[in-house]
Write a structure and sequence with these properties.
- The chain is α/β, with parallel strands linked by helices and about 350 residues long.
- The chain contains 15 helices and nine strands.
- The strands form three sheets. Strands 3, 6, 7 and 8 form a four-stranded mixed beta sheet that branches. Strands 5-4-9 form a three-stranded antiparallel beta sheet.
- α2 (about 45-55) packs across α3, α5 (about 85-90) crosses α6 (about 95-115) and α9 packs across α11 (about 190-200).
- The chain is elongated and about 80 Å long.
- Bound molecules: iron/sulfur cluster.
- Iron/sulfur cluster (SF4) binds near residues 161, 204, 211, 216 and 223.
- Iron/sulfur cluster binds near residues 161, 203, 211 and 217.
Amino acid sequence: MATGNGKDHRRRGRSAATLLLLAWYDSNRRELPWRARAGEASDPYRVWLSEIMLQQTTVAAVAPYYLRFLDRWPDVKQLAAASQDEVLGAWAGLGYYARGRNLHRAAKLVAEEFGGLFPGSAEALRKLPGVGAYTAAAIAAIAFGERVAAMDANAERVIARLFAVEERLPKAKTKLAVLAEPLVPQARPGDFAQALMDLGSGICLPKKPLCGVCPVAAHCEGRRLGIAEGLPRKAAKAARPLRRGAAFVAIDAAGAVYLVRRPEKGLLGGMLQPPLGEWRERFPDLETALGEAPFRGRWRKQPGIVRHGFTHFELETEVYVARFRARPNGEGMWLSRGELGTAALPTVMRKMIEAGFA
Ligand code: SF4
């Protein structure tokens, strides 16, 4: 964005860019299942639900989940009244399961402590489980009209380019938020937040920004300097370590599968899984793997490896399968193939079970 001479000039440039962006949004806004129609008030529950689901995930992946949740739990009180298992079961497949647990905890808090009404400011919203700075700002701006900048990856990219910010992320985050703040209009801060999201996802694309059709191109310093495409610069990512282990798919005579629950805290907390062995640098040899099996049985290693990428590491699993005429005793549970469909099973665990039946 042009730096100009003097404060007035800068302020005029900023408000012109804001007006251009809002005008563009009025005729180009995306239709999204959780978005209120132009001129309609946004429902905080819907905004919150969609924003939690959208963390780390795409609009296309979220839409069917959002619609199913809304259909089953049309308001926060009904979501709060559901069991954690029901919520995690409905969440299964969306990944990052801590978000599903936090969603339920936040719903309970809003229902029980706030009478079913979401707090109306970014500062108060941040106290809800699973609501970080961006999500709080997005809900506050969109649902309550608070004048705050909602800085997600799209917004950060647009602002970094508009102001030609060359510092690397994540260090540059604070600077980007400070630069964005004066652009947020007093009226329509929610539309402004959504306009930035839409511009970032449709025009100011990560690899090839479509500057030729961008409504704020005339105000874009990154474009003027010819460096927009390379912004925002990012710190080099550390390589993710690889872990390997064994999974045990025990199947009874009727085809039910034996599952155990993960500890409440930590990775995939509270979710179900087939019993797993320890994760190491190498796969365990047969003897070690069988020593980790939940029951004695005729365990057979399936061909192939189940691979899954977590945020901080890669996991490779060899799957062992055994069939039992009589169910051995264990502290876990046996679920039929039908019950598996709605169980709180993360995608990676489903892949292991499928490999057991292959
Ligand atoms: Fe992004 Fe290009 Fe628009 Fe600048 S001009 S905001 S780089 S699309």
